[in-house]
Specification:
Helix content is about 25%, strand content about 30%. By secondary structure, it is of the alpha+beta class. The strands form 2 sheets. Strands 2, 3, 4, 5, 6, 7, 10, 11, 12, 13, 14, 15 and 16 form a 13-stranded mixed beta sheet that branches. A 3-stranded mixed beta sheet has the order 1-8-9, with no helix packed on it. Strand 6 and strand 7 form a beta hairpin. Bound molecules: 2-acetamido-2-deoxy-beta-D-glucopyranose (3 copies).
């Protein structure tokens, strides 16, 4: 903002110089404008939240930047869980800790095509469904699909192994506003068909913080799970405020995404979020279940 005004001013001065009739006006401007700049600068650097300040990322993923993951819990009192929370996400899904169960049942997805917009939030790219896009059902509770967004590399790890990409489909229950996230991980290989469809939209909002564009009707069913097996555990949001009591479902099968798709998602966001995976968090005795169907036919 200040820079733009200053640039405009410099341009104006150079234009005026070529026109003698405006020289007096120019003298006046030279006297007044610096104080205008000062005023604008003070307004914009003060603690009051102007648009400019809001747009600036309050957290990033760079260790030692002062607002990296190890500091999130100190940035705002409301973000304290990022530091003190005992059930934080992501975690490592270590085989030894995982209890295989069949009672959880297949993940019930009841999605429908719905209008969506795509937004560059600076720390990630988010596809948001505007009207109801359907729900998933877990333990008798319905969670309505709100949005999905991408992290690269993956946030969850399996036996310490990190993958290239992870999508989070974020759901909210209507009755008690609880969050449930379905995560799918990808490694480099064949392109992901869902991402292929929206590559153009992602490109159009690349490196334009807080820009949103209308995508039109998007069917969430096209975000494929590829397997019925999934991990289930209780965790948190992986970005501030790190809210807990999030019901996590991580699909067991690691799907594929092309190198180009990962590059596009990474380059679209801010430089300090190109690597937007929070480090894994302590398990603190939490149980991790792996749902596996009883019948050999259902894999
Ligand atoms: C999507 O939005 C368009 C334009 O507002 C509307 O005509 C259409 O019915 C919507 N489609 C769905 C599936 O909601
Ligand atoms: C499932 O729901 C029942 C009844 O609402 C509750 O008692 C139980 O603790 C829930 N189980 C899990 C794993 O959340
Ligand atoms: C529901 O939870 C979400 C995420 O935790 C929060 O952003 C939203 O404000 C909550 N809504 C209500 C009505 O409490």
């Amino acid at each position: 903002m200040v820079h733009e005004l200053y640039k405009a001013y410099i341009m104006k001065v150079s234009l005026c110089k070529s026109n003698p009739r405006e020289w007096n006006m120019e003298k006046l401007r030279i006297q007044i404008l610096p104080s205008v700049f000062l005023l604008v600068f003070i307004l914009h650097s003060g603690p009051t939240t102007s648009q400019e300040v809001e747009d600036e990322q309050e957290f990033d993923y760079v260790e030692g930047s002062g607002k990296g993951p190890e500091q999130w819990g100190e940035i705002h009192p409301e973000w304290a869980l990022c530091k003190n929370g005992e059930m934080q996400s992501p975690i490592d899904l270590l085989n030894k800790r995982v209890q295989i169960v069949s009672h959880l049942g297949r993940l019930k997805r009841n999605y429908r095509p719905s209008n969506a917009t795509i937004k560059n939030r600076g720390h990630d790219i988010m596809l948001k469904w505007v009207d109801g896009a359907g729900w998933i059902e877990i333990n008798g509770t319905q969670y309505v699909l709100q949005q999905c967004h991408w992290h690269s590399p993956s946030e969850h790890t399996i036996n310490g192994k990190r993958f290239d990409l992870e999508v989070h489909m974020v759901h909210q229950s209507i009755s008690d506003n609880k969050t449930s996230v379905v995560g799918i991980m990808y490694k480099i290989g064949r392109p992901d068909t869902f991402l292929s469809k929206i590559m153009g939209y992602i490109n159009s909002i690349a490196e334009t913080k807080e820009k949103e564009t209308v995508v039109g009707v998007v069917d969430p069913k096209n975000i494929k799970l590829g397997s019925r097996k999934y991990y289930r555990y209780m965790g948190s949001l992986t970005v501030p405020p790190c809210t807990q009591d999030v019901v996590w479902t991580i699909v067991r099968k690691v799907r594929t995404v092309s190198r180009e798709q990962v590059r596009l998602l990474r380059e679209a966001v801010d430089d300090d979020a190109e690597n937007n995976a929070r480090p894994v968090q302590p398990i603190n005795g939490r149980s991790i279940h792996l749902y596996r169907p009883r019948l050999r036919l259902d894999n």
